[in-house]
Design a protein that fits this description.
This protein is mainly alpha-helical. The chain has seven helices and seven strands, in the order αβααββββαααββα. The chain has one domain. The strands form three sheets. It has a three-stranded antiparallel β-sheet with strand order 1-3-4, with no helix packed on it.
């Protein structure tokens, strides 16, 4: 089904494609997030990203660079609706490995469905319920530093807050406050606040020819980085 069909809330859908989620996972290619913990499934998604990056850059991309890049998109897709629902005060099912569903896509944001009972989910719960397990799987399979993966999660949080503020300037202070609260809590040590968030590790995207540095990149900011 299209990503905006059967969406949980029009206020979320109105923020952009990273925020819209479906209420149910109908028949077809929907798969639970838990499937991504299987080495073969995770490898397929990383290879999909690696092949796309190789086509764009014209060179063979390192597997760990592709894995980190894949995680950036996945983490952003999971964090965005949860952070926005909290800021908007709208109910949303709590994402878990078994109640959150995804569909493979050729490009663009992952399609996401949440099928649990509606509640008031927190990004902090998403960390313990979902993101930590996904990060563990990526770290083990692709020799990625947990500091890099934790930084990718925090980048997703601040990216979501920024996107909320662009779509709804009236919500920008609340979205920023939510992100800063996480940085002071469960995501402490993954970066620091200047005028904007600067992470303390590198996502490795600069290793892709023409990739350059991300807006919150520790290397561009000149801060000593974690491996």
């Amino acid at each position: 089904m299209p990503a905006d069909e059967n969406a949980t809330d029009p206020a979320l859908t109105g923020l952009g494609p990273f925020f819209s989620v479906c209420r149910e996972a109908g028949p077809g290619s929907w798969r639970p997030l838990r499937d991504l913990l299987a080495p073969a499934v995770l490898a397929e998604r990383v290879q999909h990203v690696r092949a796309a990056l190789t086509r764009l850059s014209g060179v063979d991309i390192e597997r760990r660079v592709a894995a980190s890049t894949m995680s950036l998109g996945l983490f952003a897709r999971l964090v965005s609706p949860v952070l926005a629902a909290g800021v908007l005060g709208v109910p949303l099912p709590r994402p878990t490995l078994d109640d959150a569903w995804w569909q493979p896509v050729e490009q663009g944001p992952w399609q996401l469905a949440l099928t649990g009972p509606e509640t008031a989910p927190l990004v902090a719960d998403l960390l313990t319920d979902v993101l930590t397990s996904l990060a563990d799987a990526l770290a083990q399979q692709y020799a990625l530093s947990r500091q890099v993966l934790s930084g990718n999660i925090t980048s997703a949080v601040f990216g979501a807050a920024r996107m909320v503020g662009i779509a709804r300037p009236d919500l920008a202070p609340a979205a920023r406050a939510a992100a800063e609260g996480l940085l002071a809590g469960p995501l402490a040590g993954t970066g620091e606040l200047r005028e904007d968030f600067v992470r303390s590790s590198c996502c490795l995207y600069y290793r892709i020819p023409g990739g350059g540095y991300c807006g919150d990149c520790v290397l561009a900011a000149g801060v000593p980085s974690s491996p």
